[in-house]
Write a structure and sequence with these properties.
Blueprint: H1 2-27, H2 37-53, H3 60-75, E1 88-89, E2 92-93, H4 106-112
Antiparallel strand pairs: 1-2
Helix pairs in contact: 2-3
């Protein structure tokens, strides 16, 4: 009976260990918010060098602007509808419609006074 219990403990220990390892590894992945401004400039230079090396030169400042815009896009609330390509032209970009909640509940204000 003792040997069977030891096997059971071994299996439970392996499962718990795997779960803890997965949890630590999943939390160690970086997010957009973890990237500092100076690191973003370095990332822009790196992307610029890779793209320029492929025969399509682009300035690091332009890549940095694109990364900044991407960060702003991710920080915004999700759009209600996906943006259709026909709404995007080089001279004009129509933002997707998003419902932004009113920070003040006007009904509650009317009830209070």
């Amino acid at each position: 009976m003792n040997a069977e219990f030891n096997w059971w403990l071994l299996i439970v220990g392996l499962v718990v260990g795997a779960a803890l390892t997965w949890l630590v590894m999943s939390e160690s992945l970086r997010r957009e918010i973890d990237v500092t401004e100076s690191e973003q400039r370095g990332e822009a230079r790196w992307i610029s060098a890779l793209v320029s090396g492929a025969g399509r030169p682009i300035a690091p400042e332009r890549v940095e602007e694109i990364l900044r815009l991407h960060r702003e896009y991710l920080a915004a609330p999700p759009p209600d509808e996906p943006m259709e390509p026909e709404r995007i032209t080089p001279d004009r970009v129509e933002p997707p419609e998003a419902v932004i909640p009113d920070p003040i509940d006007r009904r509650r204000l009317n009830e209070d006074g």
